[in-house]
Amino acid sequence: MEAVEKRVTQIRNNLLRILNLRKEMVDCEISWLQMIKALKLSQYEALKFKNGELPDLEQEALEILKKTPENIKNRDKKFKYFNKFLLEKGITATQFSKDVGVDIDKIHRILREIPVNRDLEAEKRIEEAIGEKIF
């Protein structure tokens, strides 16, 4: 029983590290596939990397992310915050839009501040669902 608890704790820690790495990837605007190509991983290695079983490659990935210019990290803060929220909750943007009752395209326009008629009601719904004021 103790071995099972130890393994569960290890898996949980691995997934937390990968979640933090993915949040950093969102900030740097690098997709999962781009990272796998940059690290030159095989399909098997990519699966192990996704599960957090290759900590040495995680350090390599962090080094790649550190090379990202600050202007890329600082643009579209609301949209990146939204994507991190989705990662933490483990849901997709489509599922979020269905839960909130706002069209996904409208959510993207609001978060990226694309010039359209401002929809305060939709902004309020998004903030209530996230639980934090971002507008």
Write up this protein.
- The chain has 135 residues and is an all-alpha fold.
- It folds into two domains: 2-72, no CATH class; 76-130.
- Helices cover 74% and strands 0% of the residues.
- The protein is built from nine helices and no strands.
- The protein is globular.
- The protein starts with a helix and ends in a 5-residue tail after the last helix.
- The mean pLDDT is 92.
Topology at a glance:
Elements: H1 2-28, H2 32-39, H3 43-50, H4 55-66, H5 70-74, H6 77-89, H7 93-100, H8 104-111, H9 120-130
Count the DSSP helices: 9
Gyration radius, rounded? 18 Å
In helices, the fraction of residues equals over 70%
Q: Return the structural class.
A: mainly alpha
Q: Give the overall form.
A: globular
Comma- or semicolon-separated keywords:
single chain, 135 residues, mainly alpha, 2 domains, 9 helices, 74% helix, globular
Question: Quick gist of this model?
Answer:
The protein has 135 residues and is mainly alpha-helical. The chain contains nine helices and no strands. The model has no long low-confidence stretch (mean pLDDT 92).
